[in-house]
Specification:
Elements (H helix, E strand, L loop, with lengths): L1 H22 L12 H9 L2 E5 L2 E2 L3 E3 L6 E2 L1 H14 L4 E5 L5 H7 L4 E3 L6 H4 L2 E3 L4 E10 L14 E5 L4 H12 L4 E5 L2 H10 L4 E5 H5 L6 E3 L4 E6 L2 E3 L3 H17 L1 H8 L4
Parallel strand pairs: 1-5, 1-6, 9-10, 9-11
Antiparallel strand pairs: 2-3, 3-4, 7-14, 8-11, 8-12, 8-13
Helix pairs in contact: 3-9
Length: about 270
């Protein structure tokens, strides 16, 4: 009897161990689990995006309809579809100066706002792989007689607040020996108005942005410098969001859809 009891106890222990192992559900792998930052978006049912509304072909608000459209809006919808299965987005208008604060406050999940990736900015935000490459250029009045950056010696250049344009133009001006000064503005329309009124002699920003403000009285100079890589920005720590964005951009590139978006909006 004593022997039988020992055997029975041993068998129960073995069964218990087997049952215990079988009862423990396998933990999902990190690749299949939905990251917490992405789950917030899925639960909400809408992707919140900071976008420009004064950059024709990238993000522009039609004053008649109130609709915002452009290349970056299309990209935002593609990312929303990847996360939600629908293209449902909620946009917040941002400028070069305000796009960081709306990310910091959590008002938006990401910025898709002609946000140039720099090593300094990477210290504050996550940036996706590049979805567009541009370069800083110069717009002047046709009757100004200005043909190159060197001709802007002693002139005033209008740039956006907190943009990379100022440092890029200054670096190039130093190379050619041009002494220049700057006026900073909150929005691109303000810079264009300043150029038209003569408050500044040149409007400088990325070439694709300038092209949206080109008219019969202005021209864009041949000078092109400081390549600008645009990336989708999200908060530090929101690595799940950054991963989904990179996956979306990679898929769009592979399928050719990203090139189609660029062509659709006439970007170069």
């Amino acid at each position: 009897m004593k022997k039988a009891g020992i055997v029975l106890t041993s068998l129960l222990l073995v069964v218990g161990l087997v049952t215990g192992c079988g009862a423990t559900a396998p933990t999902p792998s990190s690749s299949s689990a939905v990251p917490a930052d992405v789950k917030v978006i899925k639960d909400r049912g809408v992707l919140k995006v900071g976008v420009k509304v004064d950059v024709p072909n990238f993000g522009y608000k039609d004053p008649k309809t109130g609709n915002v459209d452009g290349y970056e809006i299309d990209l935002a919808k593609a990312i929303a579809k990847k996360i939600l299965g629908t293209e449902k987005i909620e946009t917040t208008a941002v400028t070069a100066k305000t796009r960081g604060p709306v990310l910091d406050s959590g008002d938006v999940d990401m910025d898709i706002s002609t946000f140039t990736v720099t090593e300094e900015r990477k210290k504050s935000y996550n940036f996706s792989d590049s979805y567009f490459t541009d370069g800083v250029r110069l717009m002047v009045k046709k009757n100004s007689g200005i043909q190159s950056l060197k001709d802007l010696n002693g002139k005033k250049i209008g740039v956006a607040q907190s943009a990379t344009s100022k440092a890029a133009v200054q670096a190039e001006a130093d190379k050619v020996g041009a002494k220049i000064s700057f006026l900073e503005f909150a929005t691109y329309p303000e810079i264009k108005t300043a150029l038209d009124s003569g408050r500044v002699d040149c409007f400088s920003v990325d070439g694709s942005i300038l092209s949206g403000y080109l008219d019969d009285s202005t021209m864009i100079l041949a000078d092109r410098f400081s390549p600008q890589e645009y990336g989708v920005a999200s908060k530090k720590g929101n690595d799940g969001i950054n991963k989904v964005v990179n996956e979306t951009i990679a898929e769009l590139k592979k399928s050719g859809e990203l090139d189609k978006m660029i062509q659709k909006w006439g970007l170069k």
